[in-house]
Amino acid sequence: MIYGIGTDICDIRRIRASFGRHGERFAEKILSGGELAVWRRRSARWPERGLRYLATRFSAKEAFSKAIGTGMSGPMQWQLCEIANRPGGAPQVVLHGALQSWFAERGLRAHISLTDESEYAASFCVVECADETRIQAPGSQP
């Protein structure tokens, strides 16, 4: 059963401007430790590729936060939600800390898709619950 659906489109120019104002601190706020390492490698080779990576992760986390119904509050925090790649390259949501516990208590599973084009990054997330009796309103106790 579908628990929630989230989508987000991010203007890469906006990410570029935020990065220009705040520098690496902006990336450190948005990215998990694993993502930060990937971002640094990509940025070192090609700065524009690093910005696109940052924009897709920003967009994916926004879409995920909408799908779980909390927005960017409660258990949802930027660095606790990681968008990693499976061995074949497909993106996956990897959660950490309190967000991981909150998600597991509800028996949820996330599916994420992301893309970027010249000026935009977009993401779509579906969160499902195998047992509809476990579905609870965001912020409620299990």
From TrEMBL:
Keyword presence, Nuclease: no
A GO BP annotation: fatty acid biosynthetic process
Pfam families linked to this entry: ACPS
GO molecular function list: holo-[acyl-carrier-protein] synthase activity; magnesium ion binding
Superkingdom of origin organism: Bacteria
Named cofactor requirement(s): Mg(2+)
Top EC class, one word: transferase
UniProt binding sites for Mg(2+): D8, E62
Reaction(s) catalysed by this chain's protein: apo-[ACP] + CoA = holo-[ACP] + adenosine 3',5'-bisphosphate + H(+)
Enzyme Commission (EC) number: 2.7.8.7
Protein name: Holo-[acyl-carrier-protein] synthase
Organism name: Ottowia cancrivicina
Gene assigned in the entry: acpS
